[in-house]
Write a structure and sequence with these properties.
Length: 131
Amino acid sequence: MKKSKFARWYVKYIIKTPLVFYLFLSGGILLFLILSLSLKMDIMQTAKAHVSGREVVLDGEYDILSDELYLYRNRNEEVFRLLIEGWEKTGGGTVCTVEDGKSLSGNMNADIVTGSQTLLEKIFAGTGGRG
């Protein structure tokens, strides 16, 4: 019975001297680490909000790191993406001034970006830094 060329190569370089296997394994681990450290993800927090015109008042004080704000009543129906012109912390709340209120008013839910993390932090931290 004659062995194929690949079978002879496999036995010679993988079975007898596992150098190729260790190089492949090390390359895979290195690639995983590089990609998971370079991929950044936003940490979103959901807050109750009262919307009136261009002003959005969030319940609680937040450090907003993005210029975007997502408003919705039911996330499955419609989500409004608004650009933040400015924000300030007030007594127990955060007031955001948005570019276009899209004639929204009333109580809504708001998703805001409060931080960022790498994919590696997300995998090994478990909670994602939300404490």
